[in-house]
Amino acid sequence: MGSTDPRSLVVVGGQWGDEGKGxxxxxxxxxxxxxxxxxxxxxxxxxxxxxxxRFALHLVPSGIIHPETVCYMGSGMVIDPRALVAELxxxxxxxxxxxxxxxxxxxAALILPTHGALDGAREGALGSQKIGTTxxxxxxxxxxxxxxxxxxxxxLAEPDRLRVEAERLMDGHNRELVEMFAADPxxxxxxxxxxxxxxRRLAPRIRxxxxxxxxxxxxxxDILFEGAxxxxxxxxWGTYPFVTSSSCLPAAAASSCGVxxxxxxxxxxxxxxxxxxxxxxxxxxxxxDATGDRLREAGAEFGTTTGRPRRCGWFDAxxxxxxxxxxxxxxxxxxKMDVLDGLDTVRVATAYRLPDGRVIDTVPPxxxxxxxxxxxxxxxxxxxxxxxxxxxxxxxxxxxxxxxTRLEELxxxxxxxxxxxxxxxxxxxxxxxPVSVRLRExxxx
Length: 445
Ligand code: IMP
Fold this sequence. Notes:
This protein is of the alpha/beta class and 445 residues long. It has helices spanning 21-29, 81-93, 113-126, 138-146, 159-181, 188-202, 209-218, 251-257, 290-298, 317-327, 367-372, 398-411, 434-443, and strands spanning 9-13, 34-37, 46-50, 53-57, 70-73, 78-79, 102-104, 109-110, 223-226, 267-272, 275-277, 311-313, 315-316, 331-335, 345-353, 359-360, 374-381, 415-419, 427-429. β3 (46-50) and β4 (53-57) form a beta hairpin. α3 crosses α4 (138-146), α3 (113-126) packs parallel to α5 (159-181) and α5 (159-181) runs antiparallel to α6 (188-202).
């Protein structure tokens, strides 16, 4: 979808989020002067491990750990000012200095405490049909933006208007909370005090992102665009309505930053060697047995943001192929390959069978239909040797290499990076295409 010059790169989740984008962005940030996060809010949770330290990031781009990297948060994001300030304080507490290298688009939408309360109340009202949101107010904030009554980040630099407009909006939300959901209203005075305190901290960080990126490009800087969540959680192309409320696709990177799509560069899709999902919604390859439990334990599949256990299942090549197409993924990073170590058989869904026996090879738009499909599973031999920590493809067991080759055949794109453990070093680069060459340059492999 982007240009073929891999100086800039888009990193996009190819499944239902939690694919390990944080590790990849952290790794690649070493070769990019600029990292831009383009969608979502503090529903995301990236875990980055560095020098035996573990950083949980929710809003700030994962590039922040690298002292030379300049980070931007694009206009397609939703920002809870309190959450952002808390994250900055945590980073500062870890000794990460970011004063002149972290900026926020004035056009990003703001999340207020009443958005979180509405998120919870609406989910409660949906009962068993609930989406299983992170409860961070993401949907209600995007909804206010679409209804053209939301607040945007430029107001953080205008305290008087911020107070008036935030009070008006929160009063309206409180009426909805009380009258429609019989829920407790949010204390507006307290919320305004917190908002004003956060605004004072964040106002100096507001900068229009597009002109900044143009300036960087003119200076020859490489840009990494970091997507949150994943294609299957995209508002339009995911398993709607069991999705997030933002656009997770690479095209959103251009619109979020106000730059031409031709500036984006190749798209690196991030997928796990199996699949996980948090929250509700269809999941054709989900395992409800001991193998599912084993993947959850071995992969430490518990949410970074909410701590919820993740649902686990076999690699779904139908959903993955669909993601490759709709997101224009050029190459893949396959994460957590080591979690499959020691399984006798590894299975992959190659098609879906409908209740009437028909076989389909793509993801239908209707979630009720997706709920009814049964995956057509292909058995591949597992491997007994350890993948964990392997950095040279030749050291992989032949069955593990065969697994990678089969995924490439099924998806039609190369697997250029394989993650064999949580640390930066536990990474293997494959192939000799332009993305592989660029990755090797960055990682020094
Ligand atoms: P929301 O984004 O909080 O509205 O949640 C909507 C759906 O997206 C729920 O199923 C969440 O579990 C899921 N979701 C949102 N953010 C993430 C993420 O970063 N990783 C995985 N799932 C997510």
